[in-house]
Amino acid sequence: MKIKILCTLLLALLLASCGEYNKILKSRDAELKYTYAKKYFDEKKYGRTTTLLDEILSTYTGSSKEQEILFLMAQAYFYDKDYTTATQYYTRYYNKFPKGDYTELARFNAAYGLYLDSPDARLDQTSTIKGIQEFQSFLEYFPQSEKAPEAQDLMFKLQEKLSYKEFLAARLYFNLGLYMGNNYESCIVTAREALKNYPFSEFSEEFQILIVRSRYELAYYSIEEKKPTRYRELMDEHFNYKNMFPSGKYLKESERYYRQALKALGQEVDQVTNEAVQQELSK
Prior knowledge:
By secondary structure, the protein is an all-alpha fold. It is 76% helix and 0% strand. The chain contains 13 helices and no strands. It has helices at residues 2-26, 30-42, 46-60, 66-79, 83-96, 103-116, 126-141, 148-176, 183-197, 204-220, 227-244, 251-264, 271-281. The longest helix has 29 residues, at 148-176. The chain is elongated, with a radius of gyration of 30 Å. The chain starts with a helix and ends with a helix.
């Protein structure tokens, strides 16, 4: 019985609330709608907030209230997790009010919304790239902001996602090998470009060893006249790996390719290299 009464009361309150909202929607009083939009925002009824503000925005264009309405709309969409629309309004706000009261937060949230909207690395990364650009812009305009360290950290995370996407592509090219073309070359180009674009990525070592592996496969499957050149290219990439990662986890593997290249070229492993190889193998 008590549950039934409680449900009846809740339904009555809901109907009363809806009735109030519908009256506000039908009203021609822009100030009333503005007041209720802020009230609904405080109550976390963001859909109602954006609907009311959208109806009165043109009324207040050019007035002192315009920037507050624009920012409140952006905030409502942001908290409603519609990050794409939120970013549009944040951008609209800081472009129109570059020295506005909320410009710093608008620039940060525009970038942060894109960060939150950034999809899995296997998917299209348009929002990730835009997020990086927005964070860069924020840091240019507000280098001393309290949010600057957070912006730098989030921007790095987005860059790392792009790096991971490149790693997945390079690894796929390597796994495809000579299927339907020379995918080893594509692997090398992709990995090398990633190393240039993301020099501090946690995947840097993965990129370099993929280059070494691809050079070895290219040399091994080459026609005889191309083998010498390609084995020398392999040796160069081995030394690149060794210089970049002197204690790398793939060092033994890279040394093995190097020794095979020397053997294929009819050369002997020099004493220093041999000692280093033996030391690595004995670990």
